[in-house]
Amino acid sequence: MSHGSQPQVDNNRAMSIIAVLLCPPLGIMALISANRVNPLLREGDYAGAQAALATSRKWSRPGVIVGLALWTIGCVCCAVLVTVLGVHVLK
């Protein structure tokens, strides 16, 4: 526990980094908010830390979902090009 009575808050940094790797525009927003959580906790602003965490989650979840969807679509398109059209990617 931090500051005696204040519970520790997860800063959502790991999911934000994954979102940055999968979908940078949304992930960067999530990472900026995640980086604000710990300083706010050190200042004793528990409500502000909770708000920054909520904002980070608001950006990181869609970032991961959109990123995974785009990567999946990209892989399917490559597979179609290779199998159906006979495109040789690696010659």
Separate helix tally: 3
How much is the radius of gyration in Å? Answer: 19 Å
Q: How would a crystallographer describe the biggest sheet?
A: none
The general outline is rod-shaped
- Give the end-to-end Cα distance, rounded to a whole number of Å: 58 Å
Structural class: mainly alpha
Any idea how many domains?
1
Order of helices and strands: HHH
Any low-confidence stretches, pLDDT <50, length ≥5?
none
Query: What percentage of amino acids are in beta strands?
Result: under 5%
Mean pLDDT: 88
Helix fraction bin:
over 70%
Oligomer: single chain
- Per DSSP E runs of 2 or more residues, the count of β-strands stands at 0
Name the features.
mainly alpha, single chain, 91 residues, 3 helices
Structure description:
This protein has 91 residues and is mostly helical. The chain has one domain (13-83). Helices cover 74% and strands 0% of the residues. The chain contains 3 helices and no strands. The longest helix is centred in the last third of the chain and has 38 residues, at 46-83. The chain is rod-shaped, with a radius of gyration of 19 Å. The termini are far apart.
Secondary-structure map with pairings?
Elements lengths: L12 H10 L1 H19 L3 H38 L8
Helix pairs in contact: 1-2, 1-3, 2-3
Describe the structure in brief:
This protein is an all-alpha fold and 91 residues long. It has helices spanning 13-22, 24-42, 46-83.
